[in-house]
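Input chain follows. Return structure tokens only.
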Amino acid sequence: MARLAAVRLGTEGRVVATDIAQPMLDIARAKAPPGGAPIEYLNSPAAPLAAATGAFDAVLCQQGLQFFPDRPAALREMRRVLKPGGRAAIAVWAELERNQIFAAFHAALRSTAPNALVELITAPFSWPSGVALKSAAEDAGFRDVRLSTPSLPMVLEGGVEQAVQSFAATPVSPGVAELAQDVQHAVFARMRDEMARLLTDSKVVGAMTSNIIVAYC
């Protein structure tokens, strides 16, 4: 997100990218500059943000808010660092059932794996609704909050096997790898069954849906 913003802003702009995990910032710094505005990488929690009040024209948060331990405080901090009239754009995944690839992972785990792993796969989809997101922003002091809920297809050209392999990129994968071999086999067998339901012309195709708000300070 920071790199896209830098290119969009051009050389007259300034971007500050924050993350609580220093290794993530180190990886970002190691990449070649994208061009456009310079990017400052700052180690900071979501609340309090290590930034001055009224410092920015825009705040962007893509698929992060649902993971913050204090969501209302994070929203208030986003508003605090904005200039009067500034805007925030925030995206969080919609409900699990509206994100079909991950719903398939969840169904497979629910029938075969321990509850702790089942719950872990739901974390990215833990915001209750778009209406709740909009209300939370309004409670934090934002005005003229506009909500949209776009869906785009996730297409896995390699079919069921690629879909199953993509599970390795989830935070649940290491926990599954620690299970007994027979349980692992059961997990992946059920996962193949679930992904087969999403097959279209030998491709696994599943809708991925986000709630997105644009809100003004």
